[in-house]
Amino acid sequence: MDLSAARQLIQSSFDRMRALYLKPVFDEWVVLTPGARHAGVLAYSGPRLDEFREKLPSDVEPLAAQLAGRNLPIGDFEFTHEGDGTRHDALIRLGATSYLVCNNLAKSMAEIRSDPRWLKAQAAFVDLSERFRSDPLEA
Length: 139
Fold this sequence. Notes:
By secondary structure, the chain is of the alpha+beta class. It has a single domain, classed as Beta-Lactamase (2-Layer Sandwich), CATH 3.30.450. The protein is 42% helix and 16% strand. The protein has five helices and five strands; from the N terminus they run αββααβββαα. The chain has a five-stranded antiparallel sheet, sandwiched between helices. Strand 1 and strand 2 (41-45) form a beta hairpin. Helix 1 runs antiparallel to helix 5. The model has no long low-confidence stretch (mean pLDDT 91).
C-alpha cells in the first residue's frame, strides 16, 4: 500500500471508531518511519502540528520502552497505560519500517477502555491492523 492509500484508510478507520464510540477515540495520529528524513514523520493529523515534532521523542517514550527489545510483526499493535496527555497511547506496525502512532490528548487508554463502547471501537482498530498485515505500507 502506498502512503496516500494508507492515510485514507487510517482516517476512514478513525472515523468509524468515532462513530462506534460516539466521540473521538484518538484525536491525533502520525505515520512514522524512525530514522528517515523529515524526522521520520510521513503523515500527521491532529491539533498540535507546531509543537508535535519537538515533543515527539518524549511523547513516544512510553510505547518505545514497552517495545524495547521486541520485533513487532507487521499488523501487530500495542497499547500503553502510560500515555496520558500528549504521550502516545497506541501504535500499529504498518510496514517494514513504518508505524502508526495514535493519541487521545484528553484521555488515557484506561479512561478510553472504561467506556463500554470501546469494545465496538476496538474492533475497528483491529480491522485497521489486519488491513496493514495483509497489505503493508511501502514507505
